[in-house]
Amino acid sequence: MSADYDLVVLGGGPGGYAAALYAASAGLTVALVESASVGGTCLHRGCIPAKALLHAAEVYRTVSAAAEHGVRIVGDAQPDWPAANARRSRIVDQLHKGLSGLLKRRKVTVVAGFGTLTSDGAVSVGGDTLRGRAVILCTGSAPRSIPGIDVDGTTVVTSDHSTNSDADRLPERVAVIGGGVIGAEFTSVYTDLGVATTLLEALPHGVLPVGPDRDCADVLARSLRRRGAAIHPEARVGTPERTSNGIVVPFETPDGSDKLEVDQVLVAIGRRPVTEGMGLAEAGVRVDRAGFVEVDTTTMATSRPGVYAVGDCVATPGLAHVAYAEAVVAVESVLGESPPPVDYGKVPWVVYTHPEVAWSGLSEAEARAGGYDVEVHKHTMAGNGRAMILGETDGLVKVVAQKDGPVLGVHVVGPWASELVHEGYLAVNWEALPGDVGRLVHAHPSLSEAIGETMITFSGRSLHG
Ligand code: NAD
Predict the structure, then answer these.
(1) The ligand 1 atom nearest the CA atom of 159
(2) Strand partners, 109
């Protein structure tokens, strides 16, 4: 069978379904090819299930501290791992149903199967040929593994497994390899649920060594350590050995060699693009040495005219919301419009650990390295009334600005940093002056006041800071 569409989208994760929905809303006929389930990594093995588990950990932490808030719990609160996973699963199912329904209502034709690009620029799926005026590749990414460490899904796992556990209880001891976003989030979940968790990170800073401002990442690292996580920076991990009691992980740090016996190893050392076996090279779509599809980020066009690529299969930040934004750019390019490209240096980043870490724009170190004459002010959550009421005063706001100039970066660690960051995101993207943001009235008592207070400090005066 052969069918014609305005647009054929290959891959149904956030990049793919956003491209399909947005194109359909603009009146295009769209086919969306997906080999597993629409929703992709984010919905089924990533953002959504991980955040559901983080929330279970938060509820447990909150309930365990209930007495402090004047609520007496009779008996002990206990984590119920199967119940937490059942809830996680229900949320994923509900969102999956919602997304499938939305695609149907927009009249997107969802084609089940593994699609490949043919040399004439069509998409072949299980013997059928789908032809589009344009094709958008949204084939995503998969966890990277470490040579010599075999991922079996039970003793050695990746986030694909940790977000889909059907175990009847939590592992008692976990080693997390890699202290990036996934490693930090799972260290937070496991530590709060009472798992003895050890984080082994290759780089000099053990937690979020790349990305956030150091001051914010350090607040998270201190909090995780205080709650019981063991964190080893500059760790070189050897080949783990399975034993009758679990798995032994040898590692070296500047302090010497050590080993650790655990029940489970979570490998969280980054993700690789999924672009093999889809006929890309044969179709004239250039792929770089790491496997990322090469694109012109002003249009998301690949080297083959009419073929675009967005999301984790291109070498831009691996974030679902970046994939959404790239999908809009790609669809508008297909429509012959001239969309503003995504400003990758200013997108919001959120790490949903406890405490949350979020930022937009340049860290202090990046701004200095970029040659800016930098002015920096910070405001801790310790004196913030709302944070005190929540019992979560571990945190700070840090604003990096050009001296007598606009805001370059806003960094937040603490309660609801994931939501607070968006005020910072607007300030960074509108190149607001700190004094102008400081003049805006922030509600009292609110966590947002910490941002307002930090901005006011740039005037040389302050309220409570
Ligand atoms: P990452 O790149 O964020 O972190 C990987 C970490 O592993 C790095 O710090 C690296 O130095 C370390 N590492 C690499 N090899 C190692 C080794 N052999 N031993 C010890 N440490 C080693 O990757 P990730 O945490 O796996 O996340 C993958 C992707 O998913 C990222 O693009 C991330 O942005 C995305 N993601 C985002 C969120 C979010 O936005 N909240 C959540 C989860 C994942």
Answers:
(1) 26
(2) 31
| Average pLDDT, rounded, for the chain | 97
Task: Confirm if 381 and 450 have CB atoms less than 8 A apart.
Answer: yes
> How far apart are alpha carbons 230 and 206 in whole angstroms?
10
Into which CATH architecture does domain 156-269 fall? 3-Layer(bba) Sandwich (3.50)
Task: State pLDDT tens for residues 268-279.
Answer: 999 999 999 999
What ligand 1 atom has the least distance to the C-alpha of 318? 32
Nearest atom in ligand 1 to the alpha carbon of residue 210 is 9
Distance CA 47, CA 323 (A): 13
d(CA 41, CA 134): 24
Q: Which of 55, 69, 354, 444 is catalytic?
A: 444
Specify the fold of 2-141+272-344.
FAD/NAD(P)-binding domain (3.50.50)
The secondary structure of residue 156, as a DSSP letter, is E
| Closest residue by Cα to residue 188 from 166, 160, 208, 205 | 208
For ligand 1, atom 28, name the residue with the nearest CA: 270
Instruction: List 219's β-bridge partners, or say none.
Output: none
Q: What is the reported pLDDT for 57?
A: 98
* pLDDT exceeds cutoff 80 at 428: yes
| Residues 275/313, Cβ–Cβ less than 8 Å | yes
**Ligand 1, CB within 6 Å, residue ranges:** 146, 177-183, 185, 200-203, 209-210, 235, 237, 268-271, 318-319, 350-352
**Which architecture, in CATH terms, is 355-459?**
2-Layer Sandwich (3.30)
85 pLDDT band, cuts 50/70/90, is very high
Catalytic site residue 444?
yes
Enumerate the domain spans of the chain. Answer: 2-141+272-344, 156-269, 355-459
Choosing from 249, 269, 314, 352 the residue with most ligand 1 atoms within 8 A of its CB, the one to mutate for a pocket test is: 269
156-269 and 355-459 share one CATH topology?
no
